[in-house]
Amino acid sequence: MMRRSLLLLGLVLLALRVQAEPVKEIVIEPVGDELKFKVTEFTVAPGETVRLIFKNTAKVMPHNVVVLNTDSPSVVNRVGTAAISAQDYVPNDPAILAYTKVAQPGETVEVTFKAPEKPGRYRYVCTFPGHYTLMQGVMVVSGKATS
Ligand SMILES: [Cu+2]
């Protein structure tokens, strides 16, 4: 009987621990129908679980959010140009850390991913054709690791 209660207590504690794992929620919208993200910079902790939600509040423009593992302009350019002919505008590129699918106007999409362990600046772009040169932001990884 005692052993059974201890087992149950253990399970409850385990469940609480799983629930307590922090998830950083970031909500991004475009600026009207401009090729701009409203949030152009956000900060997360190294290794943190990030839930990135993109609410496409635009009236006519489809958009997505593609997070890269670098801030390098040449990589941004490489991914942005390859996206034009890629399926769903997301090329198969090793620099892509996470991405949402394309959100049509009025649609909300999201992606959950683990932030890099390495502090630094990580560029995110919209890879819908013609958007990436203007539609960009930076995810800053900084501070103490969460795990
Ligand atoms: Cu866009």
Automatic annotation (TrEMBL):
Q: In the UniProt record, does the keyword Metal-binding occur? A: yes
- InterPro entries in UniProt: BlueCu_1, BlueCu_1_BS, Cu-binding_ET, Cupredoxin
- Which PROSITE patterns does the entry mention? COPPER_BLUE
Single GO molecular function: copper ion binding
Entry keywords, A to Z: Copper, Electron transport, Metal-binding, Signal, Transport
**Signal peptide residues on this chain, from the entry's feature table:** 1-20
Q: Where does the Blue (type 1) copper domain lie?
A: 33-141
The yes or no answer to whether the keyword Isomerase is present is no
Tell me the protein's name. Answer: Blue (Type 1) copper domain protein
